[in-house]
Fold this protein.
Amino acid sequence: VSFRVQYPHNSENISREDRREFKQTRYAVGDVLIDAASVLGGEVALKILYMKLVEAAQSCRNDETWDWRPSEASLYCIRAISSYVSVVEAEVMPQVMMLLPKLPLQPQLLQTVCLTIGAYSKWLDASPNGLPVLPSVIEILMSGMSASEDSAAAAALAFRHICDDCRQKLCGSLDGLFHIYHRAVSGEGGNKVSAEESLYLVEALSMVITELPPENAKKALEALCLPVVAPLQELINQGPTQLQKALARELTIHVDRLGNIFRYVNHPEAVADAVHRLWPIFKAMFDHRAWDMRTMEALCRACKYAVKTSGKFMGITIGAMLEEIQGLYQQHHQPCFLYLSSEVIKIFGSDPSCANYLRSLIEALFSHTTHLLTKIEDFTARPDIADDCFLLASRCIRYCPHLFVASAVFPSLVDCAMIGITIQH
């Protein structure tokens, strides 16, 4: 069936409708192959498909006459059955992986090569034959990141899968991984990884750093944050006016990367220390961009991940963070301030040492919110605030009822809930 997934001649010139139909055909053939692999077994199906790949690759010539389409089609089929191939398969997969670096760097073929590498990341980790080929497949991914936007997206995703599944094997190769990461984040060297897909590389390095011992992880985390923080610091150094004039995307692209670092580096103390060092940058954005919903959502999301990862280690910074959002919420009514507060309550609600500033937070946030939601129309006009307000209330009831129920604002919040309870939302 591989001929059915083969790209047509001059595929770049086919109509949008034909392209959509071709994609649907490929998906359908993939489903058929999955069914076949479930009946025959992944190894048997792999052998059959590999013979087609060898046949196509033998005609490979590094000139314009070579047709890349049969090789791409065979690899597409091999990728489709990846879930049914044993992670310790030792006969065919080593040959597939050794063949990949020999294929020409044609963009569409390279995209499928990268996706195939990502699909077999668990094999690369578990198989004794996986470790020797890791350097060559990572080299392929680096080529993919520079070939085209589509191949760059595929390579970034595959890189994430490999770093996730092979993280222990890659701990000793951090210098090389950081080189790839810096190229992607900075856009140097003709790198075509988009801002969105660069998050895959952030996650990838974060997962590998998680496997390091704490003393090494702290240094690696600093290195991971450095190229992300530098543009933010540069913008802040230009003064409040420039910070306020900046487009939201100029900030969120970097803040989202920090958020993913805090989310995936599972070293609570190191992350808490990083947040403490970065707090002046965060505070500057809170102070001068509180009116900007997109920036605040990204910033609160990053803080949320930091709180979830660091837990009680965030004690040094959490007071300043809560004081900041408590004051800003009353001016700008950003729903994300409520959501971030609910995460803080979840972690610190039962901590007696935090009782005073949590009590103050609860009073301030709910007192102001109940004045925003005084009639049914307010709930319709501000659905995000209503949602996040009562999420926060549910967290307070669960994690610090002794503070919440006894607060002066509790009766008015119950009245507010009675107004909104009739709304289907």
